[in-house]
Amino acid sequence: MSWSVVETALVSSLLRAQVQGELAVDKDPHEIAQLLLVVMQGMRVVARAAPEAGRLRAAAKLALASLD
Q1: Against a cut of 0.90, is the pTM above it?
Q2: Residues 6 or more apart from 3 whose CB is under 8 A from it?
């Protein structure tokens, strides 16, 4: 699956979340989608190079905090 396909799916989900009141209207779905994609790719690399669950959980927690 290509980067743009995944990004489009994320943006669509984030826009839907805004409509449903689950994501604040001041959040940019395009920017958040890009952030999540970069974090997910980075986590894949880190998981292969130095698979520490705590490190990966911390990164995921910070990335998800951007949705608040």
Answers
A1: no
A2: 37
| Rounded CA separation 3/7 (Å) | 6
Q: Where are the domains of the chain?
A: 3-65
Confidence of residue 7 (pLDDT cuts 50, 70, 90): very high
| Interacting residues of 55 by C-beta distance below 8 A, sequence separation 6+ | 46
Asked if 23 and 10 count as a contact pair (C-beta separation under 8 A), the reply is: no
Give the side-chain half-sphere CA count within 13 A for 20. 7
CA 47 to chain centre: 16
